[in-house]
């Protein structure tokens, strides 16, 4: 087809050709925006507090989001804001942005206006140090200030202890839950909310009365429950593990919980070595009889209940299977065989 005939054909078929000429670049642009605006493989996990100050441009905001590991490509974010017609509608103020949102989703969040409430979740088993690190990682506060607040914070009588080996009096009492709080609340106030929630949950579930009936102090209850919490992957095993620990305690056998070694090390070590169990530390329940000086994390309600309602068995030992469940045995020779079988 020569040029003249092509021109005549295009004139005759313009109503087919024109939409195609418009659609193809639009589709390509949208695909490009989708690819460059996907932050899933770059973004930091969790929810993060972002403060947009008065006078910040879209470029400033894009760079801030990039530095906070929420936006992979600042230029793509600016382009997204302009494409949506919202480049000049991003309001100053605090925003809580979840890691992994696309550029388009983040622009939509910021265009709706700043938040009035922040949200923070304390997972089961977290130590004061881990809660502080999570708080700081999400831009909600200072880990150092949170830990400093927890050092001597004990507003309830059952939290008091004279044991000098306890690092944080509030350890174990920052209840694992999701908290909503106003922007600007200090670390000490956040800790107070968590500890107050523990007291509320304790009394609502009647655990304070149940512990009193068993002549168990609340501090001992939390101490034992923290080890049970951290030993288990599956909650249904908590009563059985609680039963093992309580039986060991009753017969004067060391509790021998790997979780106390991990607390000493300050990390969740996958395999505890023989050398680890010989560390000289008051929290080492392989070397020291009885309970550790204090809780090693924040137990949830199910772990607390498990200690008060343990499963009565003849088991004295357990070892983790590869799927996270445990194999329970009665004698040390059976325990060694179980370890050999699991490999």
Describe the structure in your own words.
The chain folds into three domains: about 45-115, 2-Layer Sandwich (Dna Ligase, domain 1); about 120-205, no CATH class; about 215-340, no CATH class. A hairpin with a 5-residue loop joins strand 5 and strand 6 (about 325-330). The strands form three sheets. Strands 1-2 form a two-stranded antiparallel sheet. A two-stranded antiparallel ribbon has the order 3-4. It has 15 helices and six strands. The model has no long low-confidence stretch (mean pLDDT about 90). It starts with a helix and ends with a helix. The longest helix has 23 residues, at about 15-35. The chain has about 350 residues and is mostly helical. Helix 3 (about 60-65) crosses helix 4, helix 10 packs across helix 11 and helix 10 (about 220-230) packs across helix 14. Helix content is about 50%, strand content about 10%.
What's this model, at a glance?
It is built from 15 helices and 6 strands. The chain is mainly alpha-helical and 343 residues long. It folds into 3 domains: 47-115, Endolytic murein transglycosylase (Dna Ligase, domain 1, 2-Layer Sandwich), CATH 3.30.1490.480; 118-204, no CATH class; 216-342, no CATH class.
| Uncertain segments | none
Q: How many E-type strands?
A: 6
Query: How far is the N terminus from the C terminus?
Result: 75 Å
User: Spatial order of the strands in the main sheet?
Assistant: 1-2
Largest sheet data: 2 strands, antiparallel
β-sheet strand percentage: 5-15%
Query: What is the radius of gyration?
Result: 28 Å
Instruction: Please write the string of helix (H) and strand (E) elements.
Output: HHEHHEHEHHEHHHHHHHEEH
